Amino acid sequence: MTRLVWFRNDLRITDNTALFNACQDQYVKIIAVYMATPKQWQKHHISVRQIAFIHDNLIKLQHGLAELGIPLIYQQCADFSASLDWLREFCQKEKISEVFFNRQYEFNELRRDQQLEYIIGNKVVIRSFDDSVLLSPGSVLNVNNEMYKVFTPFSYAFIKQLIKTEVCSLPAPKMRKGGGVSINPILPYLNDIYKSEAFPSGEKVALAKLRNFCRENVKNYQKTRDIPAIDGTSCLSPYLAVGVLSPRQCFNRLRTEHPNLLENRDGAFIWLNELIWREFYHHLIVAHPFLCKNKPFIDWTDRVQWKNDEAMLLAWQQGLTGYPIVDAGMRQLNKTGWMHNRLRMITASFLVKDLLIDWRKGEHYFMTQLLDGDFAANNGGWQWAASTGTDAMPHFRIFNPTTQGKRFDPNGIFIRRWLPELNQVPDKYIHIPHLCAEENQTTLDYPLPIIDHSKARKETLEAFSSAKNMK
Fold this sequence. Notes:
Blueprint: E1 2-7, H1 17-22, E2 29-36, H2 38-43, H3 48-67, E3 72-76, H4 80-94, E4 96-102, H5 107-120, E5 125-129, H6 151-164, H7 203-217, H8 221-224, H9 237-241, H10 247-257, H11 261-264, H12 267-287, H13 310-318, H14 324-336, H15 341-354, H16 359-369, H17 375-386, H18 401-408, H19 413-418, H20 433-439, H21 453-469
Parallel strand pairs: 1-2, 1-4, 2-3, 4-5
């Protein structure tokens, strides 16, 4: 008897539900496999940074599994269809009796797994598990047995269910009988090498970051999380996105360090709520698969007449809008593949509510850049900012980018880090540098604002009102 463990977005050994269950019988042969699908990644706009991050973590995973006596086979296939063809042949060749994997919830991924059942289900036992979420999608429903549309009641119900459920982290499997195995090196599948000093690969690094955050920084999270100039957030999202870290590990470490987190409602509870937002968006795409098909949650918002201004879009992408807090956030994204969460909201609001550009263009661009690209979270965040999603920001609530900059980066510390051309601008002008240049009759190597916020706000309100009233 031989069991196959199919790794996907769960690149870790500890607390891996499929791997743990496959390894329960010490005398069964275990083979692990990972199938890269470059064309599918391209269709899903996965960033080259994330692809490189996956590769680096795969190498760590392969070595860790080898020490346990489990070989990891790497195979490159064009897309999901090709991966199923290869898997069918592999199962026949290796006489696989059972396939174990952790579920993914996006539409194409769910359809792929349904096809797998059809292709090999009559010959091989398929065992799948919920692993990338704290609670299974569909397990937290309202009184009408439907998925919640508003976050706050979902959060209350989620916490009640979480308390009743045994959400434990699973240990790493024991070494197989016969000891370690040799490895076949996984060659890079990118010509360019993307290394992130801020996000080294491997689950040991991820667990150390989690431990340090929960012990040292989470207590101040409520006060510091919105200030991009300081390290006030966990910075764990890249590890969660590719499954180097599990949400159970996050929750269990958090309550180990802060056993009263549900009573105190302090920084630890606020961070737990961020994990629940992640769950909310993952549960939503299962309940409403159309979210994976470029559709807004609120129907009438699809009638908004967006502008098709490529020059404006490019200025936003390059961080050349003339609004320092927006530009600093975009340049952080372009340089590192990561952006502070407050800045994700500010930059998204600016694209949609100031430039009146379709939110889907921003969602797409973020995915092509993000190291922590996660469809459900990225889509949910963009639809929230664009006022097109469930429990989204009301369409008449429009961030003023200058006010946001003054509030969250008052002295321009973060702005100067990413916009060195503004280093000599005094603090009182850092959010309106063009005014400083005008008063001093000098020039700056920095663009004037590409749009007037007050005029843009009126235009956006009219565009949304027209769409809402359209029959």
